[in-house]
From TrEMBL:
Keyword Metal-binding part of the UniProt annotation: no
GO molecular function annotation: methenyltetrahydrofolate cyclohydrolase activity; methylenetetrahydrofolate dehydrogenase (NADP+) activity
EC number: 1.5.1.5, 3.5.4.9
Function, in words: Catalyzes the oxidation of 5,10-methylenetetrahydrofolate to 5,10-methenyltetrahydrofolate and then the hydrolysis of 5,10-methenyltetrahydrofolate to 10-formyltetrahydrofolate.
Gene name tied to this protein: folD
Tetrahydrofolate dehydrogenase/cyclohydrolase catalytic domain boundaries: 7-122
GO biological process, one term: purine nucleotide biosynthetic process
Name the record gives this protein: Bifunctional protein FolD
Organism whose genome encodes this protein: Sphingopyxis panaciterrulae
Amino acid sequence: PAPPHVIDGKAFAAALRQRIADAVPAFAEAAGRAPGLAVVLVGDDPASAVYVASKGKATRAAGMESFEHRLPADATQAEVEALLAQLNADEAVDGILLQLPLPGHLDEQAAVATIDPDKDVDGLTPVSAGRLALGIPGMVPCTPYGCLLLLQDRLGDLSGKDAVVIGRSILVGKPMAALLLGANCTVTMAHSRTTDLPERVRRADIVVAAVGRPEMVKGEWIKPGAVVIDVGINRLPPAEGAAKGRLVGDVAYDEAAAVAAAITPVPGGVGPMTIACLLRNTLVAAHRRAGLADPE
Ligand code: NDP
């Protein structure tokens, strides 16, 4: 087993997936159908195809219905939006995930914005972002939601904690900061123009790194006893004779682990939480659409 200060996201995600699977029969009983997640893949990007396949597998493993839709790489904007409209109207579909990135000739933001916000399990529509900002119940992007669950599991109430989020992407940094603010942290959002980043990180009880730069956050930046969540997934160049380089996060793990009270490893930390939270969002969307109270 991992040492106690290593946050085992893999085990946490497995337990969450089990709780979701356990809640599916009661939903099916009440609604007369299983929750359904539709995943749309446009084109044949191999990495996206792998993600879509693993999402489908996890969906079925949780006892939910998985609908997989593929459009050719030369699909038009109108064809993509027509498929999304059809899924919006489909009663059996509770969650819609448009796998990004789309081929370059398509307008991603415009396509995402056509998804019914109540089915927006990726939390990427403008309405979902607005609900999150306003503190109205809605769909929260999966990766930051997973980070919040790991933090709450480790720390309990986050009220009054000083948190630094490094990175301000729509997918991770911005919603992460909104979630931490909603949990009553005092939040600093850092990005590429931030000055004195090490000093700002040194004050933080909670550090979330979502940058995409291998081992950028150094151990000496971390306040002793802080909790460090490393969202970054970076592949280093392969060593002499090796086929593939090692995966590392945005945090210099060994250095940071020596000072932090708790830290997520890469891989095996935040990564596994994303699909678990996608299933959770689908289950929640299904309950809300059926007029049922949110599941535990
Ligand atoms: P983006 O590239 O969209 O955003 C990166 C952010 O980092 C930007 O806001 C950028 O600032 C900021 N940044 C860049 N350089 C610096 C710097 N030197 N100092 C401070 N901030 C900096 O990345 P994502 O948010 O999509 O992803 C971040 C990482 O998380 C990636 O490694 C990605 O692979 C990983 N990831 C992992 C997931 C998972 O575990 N399931 C899911 C999603 C992402 P600015 O805005 O000023 O340009």
